[in-house]
């Protein structure tokens, strides 16, 4: 007899539909599986055989063939165990064929027949809904995640016995009765900018960077508060839009980091990998390709503390994602695309000991300083919009009683300026000033004749590249939006130039 079951596999963060076919016929006893399978899928044969025997459904001594369509896409992951078991049971006549229509089945099976959770259930169920499927059977541990897709009847099962009873009796409502209360995750209590004393320039730079979603670099001695300020950036980030929440949640689902949530992710991520992270850990990949840190920071912040301590090749791997907002991986098994539209925030010391240019404290040689700073290449600096110095705090600033501005007050101003940007770009394919393409710079960052002459001088004096010049104009556009202005003024250009010229203090000595 013949049967077929609908399931899916993950490619990047996208779900690819897969049809599992099973045929049980006369012939030499064999259990064969075909269809471009990864090793963990091939091993499902023994897991399914043993699990069915342990629940009282031993396979007959007949020829069993399982095929995975389409055959030209590599199937990986452990989520095929349950579809294989159901397809074989239906081909044996133990389950009705008609009930398998319009059903997505995903899950891993233990040798005792218990259904184990798998990664990537959210994108699988969302894609199945787009194909017209309205029912799905998933591991009970993944039920809450699958239920995030509205309009889908989700049945969570714990073992093969429950699956058989569900399909034999068509008792969908019985297994879907205990609905989870899908609520938004409660916002975490974030560190507040009011806890930071002094460092007004750093706070101003953070506000400008978040308003236009610009990349940001802090340079300063140890203990100046670079990490403390950066860790408070999430408190002024705008809330995620509904489409952004779903896209980000899919990434975390594929990574297996969505379990336990009450709903879609509601806060923009703040990822801060250690400087020992590998290129693969940062950009993604692996034997079974997985999203990396920059994809986990999608629509949020990637914070690289002690930037020169990262391996040079690791930092250089950020070049393309910073420009394109995505990671393109090509492997033997195919190509993968992971979203990576993030705001880069980095912090570093000006030299190995951290105290340059204070020669009273700095003991580094010029060669050591040069070698340290050269770990950050000019192409990477070109991709950083705002660079500011983090001076050491004075005793008065540290112990002062002056009331500092709260993150809530800063976020209100950020929201107003971002509303201006969204309204301006409502007909475009972007939302923030940092995303203005080079072809639109003249339209959205227009300068008068006098300003163009001034920028011509600056272009030569600072030895700007085309990329850094455009970034300077984008920052000036953000500063104008923060002032509520329609046009870029001289003061906006001057402040933007300060943010771009500061790096010359260290990289051109």
UniProtKB/TrEMBL annotation:
Nucleotide-binding in keyword set: yes
Transmembrane segments: none
Keyword line: ATP-binding, Nucleotide-binding
A matching Pfam family: Mg_chelatase
Coiled coil: none
Single GO MF annotation: DNA binding
Domain of life, source organism: Bacteria
Domain AAA+ ATPase: 212-387
Family that this chain belongs to: Belongs to the Mg-chelatase subunits D/I family. ComM subfamily.
Protein name, as recorded: ATP-binding protein
Species name: Roseburia hominis
